[in-house]
Amino acid sequence: MSFVPQFFTTAESLVDSLDKKLLVVLRDGRKIIGVLRSYDQFANLVLQDSLERIYVGDAYGDIERGVFIIRGENVVLLGEIDGEVEDALPLRQLPIEDILQMQREEAEEKARKDKLRYQLLHKQGFSVDFADNDLY
Q1: CA distance readout (Å), 131 to 7, 41, 71, 125
Q2: What does pTM read for this prediction?
Q3: 3-state SS of 18-78?
Q4: Cβ distance 30 to 1 under 8 Å?
Q5: Using CA atoms, how far apart are residues 118 and 96, in angstroms rounded to an integer?
Q6: List of residues 6+ apart from 118 with CB closer than 8 A
Q7: For the chain, how far is it from start to end, CA to CA, in angstroms?
Q8: So what's the pLDDT on residue 15?
Q9: Taking Cα atoms as reference points, which of 43, 42, 47 lies closest to residue 22?
Q10: Which residue from 112, 118, 119 is spatially nearest to 130, judged by alpha carbons?
Q11: Structural contact between residues 59 and 91, judged by C-beta atoms closer than 8 angstroms
Q12: Cα–Cα distance, 62 to 129 (Å, whole number)
């Protein structure tokens, strides 16, 4: 009789991730990094020493969040962070005030380009869907 490995696709598969540093991407696009301390059958998560990381271009900024509770239905992606790989990434850390300013400028530029594109599409008879605030 051969052994067939089991792959869990439920919250039970999180048992190997306990006490490890994880990156969690939420439905609203936020990225939370923290140590997984607890979870339940609905994949609700409790992260300790967590921070919200905001990426803009090749830079990032961190906002300390402490203990962070995440409702399972808001999780889009969850993965373990390899410390060695994280340190080797060609990203520069900037003060959060600078990152937030860069993020605002990037959002304004995107809104300007989207408005132009929507106007062009509308002139050609296309209907434009404005529901782009949910990554799920």
Answers
A1: 35, 31, 22, 19
A2: 0.77
A3: CCCEEEEEECCCCEEEEEEEEECCCCCEEEEEEEEEEEECCEEEEEEEEEEEECHHHEEEE
A4: no
A5: 32
A6: 128
A7: 42
A8: 86
A9: 47
A10: 118
A11: yes
A12: 32
SS3 assignment, position 80? strand
Q: For 109, how many CA atoms within 13 A lie in the half-sphere containing its CB?
A: 6
Q: Give me the half-sphere count of Cα atoms (radius 13 Å) on the Cβ side of residue 80.
A: 11
At position 53, the amino acid (one-letter code) is: R
Q: Cα dist. 68→33, 43, 93, 111 in Å?
A: 10, 14, 22, 31
How far apart CA 11 and CA 68 sit, in angstroms, is: 18
| Whole-Å CA distances, 120 to 24, 66, 92, 97, 116 | 37, 45, 37, 35, 6
Residue-wise pLDDT tens digits, 11-62: 677 888 899 999 999 999 999 999 999 999 888 999 999 999 999 999 999 9
**How do residues 80-104 score in pLDDT, each as one tens digit?**
998 888 888 889 999 999 999 999 9
